[in-house]
Structure formats: C-alpha cells, structure tokens
Amino acid sequence: MDPIRNPYAPGAGQRPPELAGRDEQLAAFDVVLERVARGRPERSLVLTGLRGVGKTVLLNALRSSAVRRGWGTGKLEARPDQRLRRPLSSALHQAVRELGHPQEDAVDHVLGVVRSFAQREAGPGAKLRDQWSPGIDAPAVRGRADSGDVEIDLVELFTDLGGLAADVGKGVAVFIDEMQDLGPDDVSALCAACHELSQSGLPVIVVGAGLPHLPAVLSASKSYSERLFRYARIDRLGREAADRALAAPAAEEDASYTDDALAAMYAATGGYPYFIQAYGKVVWDLAPRAPITAEDVAVASPEAEAELAVGFFGSRFERATPGERDYLRAMADTAVAIADAGGEPLDDVASVPTAEVAAALGKKPQSLSPARDSLLKKGLIYSGERGRIAFTVPHFGRYLRTQG
C-alpha cells in the first residue's frame, strides 16, 4: 500500500481522519451553545477518560463548533507547576478578540481587566521585568480582578467577559485540557466562577477535559460542583464506531478491509482511538494490497506493538523512578491475581486495592505512599475511590508484563 496515501494519524491530540463515535457529544454541545446564546441556563461541561481515548481531540472539535457559531474561545493546558492566572489570561485575550465586539472602549475595558488579572500573579509592587501581560495593549484596570484572591478575581473577570459577549448576542467558551492538574485554589476559584455564572445567566461556559478522577477533584474543592458541571465519560469505541474509524478513511483512498481484518483490528486495539490510529498506520504501510486482510493485521501487529512500546508506553514508564516502576509492576501483577482468583477476564484498566499492591511488594501500605503519590502527580495512575488505584493508560498492565 502506498505510504504517502496512508490516511491514519496517530498523535497526541491530533484529529483522526474520521471522528467516529462522538456524534452524541457533538450534538449535545451544539444544544448547549444555542441555549447559552439565548440566555437559557446551562451547565459547563467536563470530559473524563483514560489517556488515548480522544479527550483532547474531542475538546478541539467542541471548540471548533463554538468558533463556527461566532463565539469567543480560548484554550489552555493545565500544568501542576503553573498557576491559572497567566495561561487563562492568554486564552481569554484570544476569546475577546474572536468576539468582534464593535465598541473599542468596551473591548479595551475588558482587556484591561484581563491584564490586571494576569499581572496580579507577580504581586503588588513587582518590578516591571517581573510583570507579565499576554500581549494586551490596553492599560490594566485597577480595582477589578486584581484583589489577589483568585476566587474573587475570577468571578469579576468572568462577569465582565460575559457582559461583553452578551452585548453582541454571542458567548465565550474556555477550554481547559488536563484539568485535574489545576492547583486546589484554582479549582476552587473556577468552581466559584462557574457557580456565579450559572446564577447570573451570563453567556460564559467552561469545557474541561481530564483523567477519570477529575470529578472527585472538583467535588473535593466545592461540594456543589456536582451540580455545576455536566460530566461526560469518554471511553473506548464500540465495534461499529471502531470499524468506521478504520474503514471510512480507507474508502477515501479507494481501499478497504475484510470483515475478518476489522475483527482482528478491534481485538488488537480494544477500541481505543489512539491504538486504532497507530495500528491502522502500520497495517496500511505493510499490507501489500487492498483489501486489507486478517493476515495483514497479524503480520503488522508486532511492529505496531513495538512502536507503542516505545512512544506510548515506554515514554511514560521512563518517567518513573526504579521504586515507582516496582510499584507499577506490582499493580499489573495484582490485577492478574485478582482476575485469576475470580475466574474473570483480565481488564487492564480496572482498579486494584492499594493494600494488595503493598502485599505483592511485601511492604506496608504506608511505606509506599511516597511512590504512589509521585505516580499520581506524574499522571501515570489515578485513584477513583479511596484505597484503590488504576493505570491512566489502557493496556499499560499488559505492556509491563511483557517487559519481564
């Protein structure tokens, strides 16, 4: 098969040629946009799921929907070592520009509030070189969004931003990827701002994406967060959608798969979108001709697995210390032991009890807390419920068991 015509696109956040299985989320978001623009009450949205299920791709697709409706949009990626003020200010600067408000004075006022919000990061009396603004020419508006209390400031900022959007009958959507990495103060402020927006009816919404434990992070910050956000769990694709993700791009290049080949691809990928693209690319390159057969999939699978072992799994495993790697391997072994004891198929993404992981290592759970906490911060594992942990990456346990 001609590699130049290979339609598949494995990559972090890279949109696949066929965004299969996400029609429901896209349609629901269109309703949210229309309701908010009309002044109807609507909750902000949070997407959750494992790595490789396409959260970032879907987040970008939702943003595109908002842009097509003339909304102001901005996007940021949260990082554990960065506060919210500066990246959010950059995102909101872009959102204000996209709104296209005709009154320059009104725009300058809101941009001045954004600048004031950003500069407060440096603290009062900071030297000029320590101050920062996201390319905003308007002067900072003193006394607005600059109290130093990020919760108060964010409420004021979103209120002014919502008023600007309402003037032109549009809305503003802020997209936050890796939302679970926000600091506790910033999470609390974001929840408080969304709460205020829901009461005032201003056309501003937050769309976040993060790992499965993100709802717990939000709930720990504000007890009412369960009512602030509409949660959508993004999971692996069903068989029909997975087949479409492979077959539709191939058809555009006058190629096809046999039914057996599609079945083999689903068995190999588990329906995870990233794996579908990764396997699809390798199978296409190695298949001699169309239609692609199950035999072609079998021949290509070792190379696809080798590429994933280096780029998808290995890069994450290398971030762990030797002690953390022992903990990860013990998690994988514990999952096997639990499946064998219950006589059930092994599920690599199922959570395991931390006490049993400690037992597998022959140590007390308390002594393993530093390793576990470090892995949580690195985003390699997550805790969906007290006393249990799971991998954030599907098939990670399988990878670890092949490493010996």
TrEMBL record:
<keyword id="KW-0479">Metal-binding</keyword>
<keyword id="KW-0349">Heme</keyword>
<feature type="domain" description="Cytochrome c">
    <location>
        <begin position="166"/>
        <end position="317"/>
    </location>
</feature>
<dbReference type="InterPro" id="IPR027417">
    <property type="entry name" value="P-loop_NTPase"/>
</dbReference>
<keyword id="KW-0408">Iron</keyword>
<keyword id="KW-0067">ATP-binding</keyword>
<dbReference type="Pfam" id="PF13191">
    <property type="entry name" value="AAA_16"/>
</dbReference>
<keyword id="KW-0547">Nucleotide-binding</keyword>
<dbReference type="GO" id="GO:0005524">
    <property type="term" value="F:ATP binding"/>
</dbReference>
<dbReference type="InterPro" id="IPR009056">
    <property type="entry name" value="Cyt_c-like_dom"/>
</dbReference>
<feature type="region of interest" description="Disordered">
    <location>
        <begin position="1"/>
        <end position="21"/>
    </location>
</feature>
<dbReference type="InterPro" id="IPR041664">
    <property type="entry name" value="AAA_16"/>
</dbReference>
<protein>
    <submittedName>
        <fullName>ATP-binding protein</fullName>
    </submittedName>
</protein>
